[in-house]
Amino acid sequence: MERMRKLLRSDEVVARVRRDIADGVYRPGDALPEPEELAAELGVLTRAVATAYQRLADDGVLLENLLTPGVVVADPELDPTVRSLVHAVAAMRRHLERLDARLDDLTERVDTVGRSVHESRLEAERGVNHRY
Question: pTM for this structure?
Answer without folding.
Answer: 0.59
